[in-house]
């Protein structure tokens, strides 16, 4: 957890899952949103951090998709636009 900075605002966490994209692609999208990869599972921006995990999920009896879960942490005002911009990129990934 990040402690509040004197005079700063609170930090919140928002978790979203996205199907059909890879963890590698999710990291690239976050880097394109001014983030910097800090390890295999985390990207940090100026006042936000995104932690990623991935699982295969069953779709029907014989098909699986990758589901990437991103836990965004940061200032609420920053996360509003960051999560929306990331979601738009993730929705276009398959097409």
Structure keywords:
Ribosomal Protein S8, Chain: A, domain 1, 95 residues, single chain, alpha+beta
Can you offer a commentary on this structure?
The chain has a single domain (12-92), classed as Ribosomal Protein S8, Chain: A, domain 1. It has helices at residues 23-32, 76-92, and strands at residues 12-19, 36-39, 42-44, 48-59, 63-74. The model has no long low-confidence stretch (mean pLDDT 89). With 95 residues, it is an alpha+beta fold. Strands 1-5-4-3-2 form a 5-stranded antiparallel beta sheet, covered by helices on one side. The protein starts with 11 loop residues before the first strand and ends with a helix. The protein is elongated and about 45 Å long.
First and last CA, distance: 36 Å
Compute the CA-based radius of gyration: 14 Å
Q: Widest sheet: strand order? A: 1-5-4-3-2
User: From the 3D coordinates, which CATH architecture would you assign?
Assistant: 2-Layer Sandwich
CATH homologous superfamily? Molybdopterin cofactor biosynthesis MoaD-related, C-terminal domain
Strand/helix succession: EHEEEEH
| CATH topology name | Ribosomal Protein S8, Chain: A, domain 1
Q: Could you report the average pLDDT, rounded to the nearest whole number?
A: 89
Instruction: Quote the beta fraction.
Output: 35-45%
Number of helices: 2
Largest sheet: 5 strands, antiparallel
Q: What is the molecular shape?
A: elongated
Q: At the first level of CATH, what is the class?
A: Alpha Beta
Class of secondary structure makeup: alpha+beta
